[in-house]
Amino acid sequence: MDLLINRVERREIKPGDHIYTYRAAFIYSHHGIFVGENTVVHFTSSWISSDSSFYNSSLICSSYPDCGFRKPKSGVVRSCLDCFLRNESLYRYKYGVSPSVFFAHVRGGTCTTAKSDPPAEVIRRASYLLESGFGNYHLIQNNCEDSALYCKTGLLTLDKLGVGASGQVSSVFGAPLEAIFSSCPNLWMPSPVSRAVIKAAVKYSLDRYEADIGVRDDVMKVAVEDLAVKLGLDGRHHKEVADDTDASKRDFVAMNSERN
Ligand SMILES: [Zn+2]
Q1: Cα 81 to ligand 1 centroid, rounded to whole Å
Q2: Fewer CB under 10 Å: which end of the chain, C or N?
Q3: How many angstroms does the Cα of residue 145 sit away from the middle of ligand 1?
Q4: How many degrees, rounded to 5, is the angle at CA 233 between CA 256 and CA 222?
Q5: What is the DSSP code (8-state) at residue 5?
């Protein structure tokens, strides 16, 4: 269902949109920010970038001269849309969805209840990350969906050294679950097996909802200029970063108590 809901044509996307596509026969999704002029800024891991089509995109890309640009040791890359999509379909992530719409999206990694900032700010953050990086790629803690969510909202989870914002792993596990439902319509008939599968699906949806940055209460707005400190990229010792994170938590609690 999500595949139909979020699918867009190239002419429909606008600079500042969070876009994604699927890799490896829908097993996982890859996310980026469309920054205009047919280019996408996205975060890649070493295992993705070792894939020849990304790693050598500047050598084989004929449509954009700087395709595959990245700073040394940075995982943030600017590619042309063609190299980002690799002939796969284009999807647009949804922001500011209601909880009911969120639950209607069977698959994780396609929408959030958090609101997007204006496109100019989103592009500014993406451009900044292209210059300064987004830390080390980690499938769970820090991935391409996290960096796109950050560009769109400026929100960072305070336990960034723990669980990432996106629940990308949920979207990894969401794929087979969705496949089970679509290939076995009889699951809706009462039986112990169908009850177990439906129970797992409900738990998966609730977990995904609780992990959404628009719902979590441990997120805060972080200026892109301060991101290096928050992610511990400025060479400071981990303990200092942890102390800084604790201070951020205290600030956040204080800010909330003032608000309430
Ligand atoms: Zn290209």
Answers
A1: 7
A2: C
A3: 20
A4: 25
A5: H
Cα 131 to averaged position of ligand 1 atoms, centre (Å): 19
Residue 251: both structure tokens together = 């600030």
For 23, residues 6+ apart whose C-beta sits below 8 A from its C-beta are 29, 30, 86, 88
Radius of gyration of the CA atoms of the chain, in A: 19
Mean pLDDT by 10 residues, the chain (260 residues): 76 96 79 95 64 47 85 86 91 91 76 94 94 68 84 80 50 49 55 69 75 81 82 50 47 48
| Cα(44) to centroid(ligand 1), Å | 15
CA 143 – CA 166 distance, rounded (Å): 8
For the chain, the first-to-last Cα distance in angstroms comes to: 39
Kindly report the pTM of this predicted structure.
Answer: 0.73
144 is catalytic: yes
Task: Tokens for 56, please give them.
Answer: 């050598």
Answer yes or no: are the C-beta atoms of 41 and 127 closer than 8 Å. yes
What residues contact 5, with CB distance under 8 A and at least 6 apart? 94, 105, 110
In the three-class reduction of DSSP (H, G, I as helix; E, B as strand; rest coil), residue 221 is classed as strand
Query: Which one of the listed residues 18, 30, 31, 105 is annotated catalytic?
Result: 30
Half-sphere exposure for 240 (CA within 13 Å, toward CB)? 9
Q: Are 95 and 118 in contact (CB under 8 A)?
A: no
Whole-angstrom CA distances from 131 to 164, 201, 220 are 22, 40, 23
Q: Say whether 30 is catalytic.
A: yes
pLDDT score for 80: 94
Rounded to the nearest 10 degrees, how much is the dihedral formed by the CA atoms of 106, 108, 112, 117? Answer: -140
